[in-house]
Backbone:
């Protein structure tokens, strides 16, 4: 066992003869305590719910530190796992569902509620702190004897011995809570389920495209979603470009790419093996497109001869 | 430093949590105020457990944690279902029982 593990249970929660804590614990308390109060005030005054959730997470982690410092190592770990790891993450999930940017309404439904609430909270703080702080307690015992052989083991003896019935009841409570959450968030289906078969039948009934749409164009110089494919007769197929790009007007012109291919086929683009000339070096044929080049046709005019789309590329 | 400081800190946190419940309108923040109150009670229990040299306080704090977890699950489910039907997470909008 490492020295830390053997030292820690004796050091954590140890008290001096006069019932005072160790200096290290005092430093921890006076560091974390004011920060915790500040974070709690952050929960009270934060405009955004996410900031409030972060403040509460800070408070809970600090509380875990304090538990460990007070000799409750088991509770410290459970605090981190259950509260910070599960409960607050659940809060963040629900914030994500409900909408992060929703802030409080500033309309008072009960008149003067804000001042009354602040006054009540202040009064509660004064009364609680006054009573708890000014009461006389007996000399503190410390957990040195109770934590034998170690804190988790001693707590386990109590939970599974003296309080085993409560443990079972709490298990039933957890199962009930999980079921309750399932039932509460269950949403009945209002419309019949639309599956793959129904979708296909509906598409055929409305006279749509029976099979999947053609893929976008693949050219020697360009292979992207925005270039329409060419049909067997050389017409650009509008439906091959994704609908979103068409709606946005980001569809590329097939002619621009076909013109470049013509240049390549005319021998103007690629000169030697692996070397390329610039666009300016291309002079082109005097008689327009050379033999075997891609010809883009207008969609309205169906062509008689099939354009040799595959040869040469 | 005596152990009373922990108790005063727990009392302050509890009061701030209660004030949050009283003042805030967002149901989720109100819920976090409830969580803060439960946590401060746990700190109180742990401190008293150390004062008396008796682990029953820690066992009770453990059960408080478990019950709080169950409470959070059900409460957040209620908030989500209310938000689905009314499109609002404000506690002021849930006034169907008002005449």
Residues:
């Amino acid at each position: 066992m490492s020295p830390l593990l053997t030292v820690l249970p004796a050091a954590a929660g140890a008290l001096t003869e006069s019932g005072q804590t160790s200096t290290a614990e005092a430093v921890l308390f006076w560091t974390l305590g004011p920060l915790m109060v500040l974070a709690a005030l952050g929960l009270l005054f934060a405009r955004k719910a996410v900031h409030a959730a972060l403040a509460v997470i800070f408070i809970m982690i600090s509380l875990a530190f304090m538990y460990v410092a007070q000799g409750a190592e088991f509770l410290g770990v459970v605090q981190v796992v259950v509260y910070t790891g599960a409960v607050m993450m659940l809060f963040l999930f629900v914030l994500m569902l409900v909408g992060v940017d929703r802030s409080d309404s500033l309309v008072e439904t009960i008149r003067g509620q804000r001042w009354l609430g602040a006054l009540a909270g202040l009064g509660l703080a004064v009364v609680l702190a006054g009573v708890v702080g000014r009461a006389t307690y007996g000399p503190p015992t410390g957990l040195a004897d109770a934590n034998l052989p170690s804190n988790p083991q001693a707590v386990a003896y109590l939970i599974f011995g003296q309080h085993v019935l409560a443990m079972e009841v709490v298990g039933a409570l957890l199962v009930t809570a999980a079921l309750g959450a399932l039932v509460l968030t269950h949403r009945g289906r209002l419309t019949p389920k639309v599956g793959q078969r129904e979708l296909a039948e509906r598409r055929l009934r409305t006279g749509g495209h029976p099979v999947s749409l053609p893929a976008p164009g693949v050219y020697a110089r360009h292979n992207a979603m925005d270039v329409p494919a060419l049909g067997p007769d050389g017409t650009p197929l509008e439906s091959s470009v994704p609908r979103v790009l068409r709606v946005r007007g980001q569809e590329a012109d097939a002619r621009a790419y076909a013109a470049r291919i013509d240049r390549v086929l005319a021998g103007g683009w690629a000169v030697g093996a692996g070397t390329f000339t610039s666009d300016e070096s291309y002079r082109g044929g005097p008689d327009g497109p050379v033999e075997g080049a891609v010809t883009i046709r207008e969609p309205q005019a169906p062509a008689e001869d099939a354009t040799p789309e595959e040869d040469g590329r | 430093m005596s152990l009373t400081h922990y108790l005063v800190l727990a009392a302050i946190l509890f009061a701030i949590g209660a004030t949050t419940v009283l003042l805030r309108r967002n149901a989720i923040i109100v819920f976090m105020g409830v969580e803060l109150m439960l946590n401060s009670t746990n700190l109180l229990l742990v401190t008293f457990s150390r004062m008396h040299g008796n682990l029953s306080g820690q066992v009770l704090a453990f059960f408080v944690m478990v019950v709080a977890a169950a409470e959070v699950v059900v409460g957040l489910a209620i908030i989500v279902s209310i938000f689905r039907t009314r499109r609002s997470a404000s506690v002021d909008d849930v006034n169907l029982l008002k005449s």
